[in-house]
Amino acid sequence: MAEQSHVGAGDPAKNALPVSPPKPNGNPVFRMMGLPNFRFKLPSRNWLIFLSVTGSFTTAVLYDRYHKQRNQQRWCNLVSHIAQEPLPPKRMPRRITIFLSAPPGDSLRAAREHFHEYVKPVLVAGAMDWDVIEGRREGDVRAGLAEKIRKRRRKEGEKATAVDASERPEEKDDLVQEFRDTIGITESEGVQGDLILGRHTWKEYVRGLHEGWLGPLDPPPDTTPPENTPKPSTDQPALEDAASGTNSSPEANDPSIQDSDSDTPPEVSEKPKEEKKEEKPKKPVQNPPYIPPTINEYNSARLPPSVPETLPPCTVLPSPHLLGFLNTPIRIYRFLNRRYLADETGREVAALVLASHIQAWTTRESFASSADPDASSSTTTTAIVQLEGDWEQQGVLQEEERDWHKSVWKTNEDERERILKNPMVIDPRIGERMRRFEIGTDEYERVKSDEGRDPAAKSLLDRVREMVGWEEDRTVKGWEHGFVEVESA
């Protein structure tokens, strides 16, 4: 018995514990589907930095885009009732004039994109029609507005001495207006207005107003010297000889030259003709200023009798445009806060569409006293002398000049027109006739009060209710418990 117990105790195979089967490597379902083994663990330090930076920037962009559309939609809803009003079949909708010009150092595409993104939605919501005066170069807006005003003055009866009205070619707009008058189509009776985009366009707009109303109808005399007509070259035959087939040049009578010319193949002389490229269409010539932009010239100019008591009101919209690699942080900040620009632009455009409040521009006058402050006599008379007048138009969007390209402030080496560099000069007769649109207090309060009822401001739960058709039934469903508070009976 002892030997048996000794043998049984020494056998390791019988005394060993049962070995458990190996654990499966990963999820068996993923393994059967052929997917890799996913291990849920905390990302590494580099991945955490990357995800936090990209996630924060993406969230900021989406947040700004959402509130930008929401702010823009509020002002569209404010003017949308105008589009629902009936319009007679032979009456044109209300039409305004929009002035766009290329920002300093950039092309006109930037101004167009700004208009389509911020301005056009509100105008379309209010069923507005518009004409556009664009400027690709500095001075195009000035020339276009001044020519428009001079055309109006000619229709009012003013005559130009240089070019007779009968000799002036009839334009396309005149033909269209004549056709409308023939079939009885009338213009809208609403208030017309102008919309100016950016400080750079505003300076040209003010300059064009003064040139159109204070300048003459006759173009200024051409100060450029006439180009010298080139003399006919002796290497080419004269025009009469070419037509008759003869050559009167001395080379034609020299037999040695004729022999040398006869040795050359005829294909060589035809190559320059084939290499001539098609001439590109020339750019339209910009009209020069009809009156110098100085206060002395404005004061000496005579105001025409056709000038109205009040000029068409206008609205100046901000157009921030900053270039340069070193300004990238500022540009990113503006990109993430476009909702404020959309709100400000929508408010100004809505004021133009409603046209319920029109205000005059103000002027700040600075005065100086001629009295001696150290005089102790009480009988000293004090004389008040006006130094200068600071018009409100001169300070509109003046902060945008800091963002202009440095090429604006360079010296005028090519002798071209420099409107942006020069200060704005305003004649009192024109400045006091200018008007602007403003949003009324009642309209602004209506927008703020309707913010809670704005469809874009509804919660996700309310939008789900509308999608499933439960917007009228306000009873709390079973799946809504925990998301909303049940009103007590």
Structural class: alpha/beta
Q: Beta-strand percentage? A: 5-15%
Radius of gyration: 39 Å
Lateral arrangement of strands in the main beta sheet = 2-1-3-4
Helix content: 40-55%
User: Mind describing the biggest β-sheet?
Assistant: 4 strands, parallel
Write a short abstract of this structure.
By secondary structure, this protein is of the alpha/beta class. It contains 17 helices and 8 strands.
Any overview of this molecule?
The chain is an alpha/beta fold and 489 residues long. The chain has 17 helices and eight strands. Helix 4 (45-83) packs across helix 5 (108-125), helix 4 (45-83) runs parallel beside helix 14 (338-354) and helix 6 runs parallel beside helix 8 (199-214).
Features:
alpha/beta, 4-stranded parallel sheet, 17 helices, 489 residues
Show the helix and strand layout:
Blueprint: H1 2-9, H2 12-15, H3 28-33, H4 45-83, E1 95-101, H5 108-125, E2 129-135, H6 140-155, H7 172-183, E3 194-197, H8 199-214, H9 239-244, H10 255-263, H11 266-274, H12 295-300, E4 314-317, H13 328-335, H14 338-354, E5 358-360, E6 363-369, E7 384-391, H15 428-431, E8 435-437, H16 441-449, H17 460-468
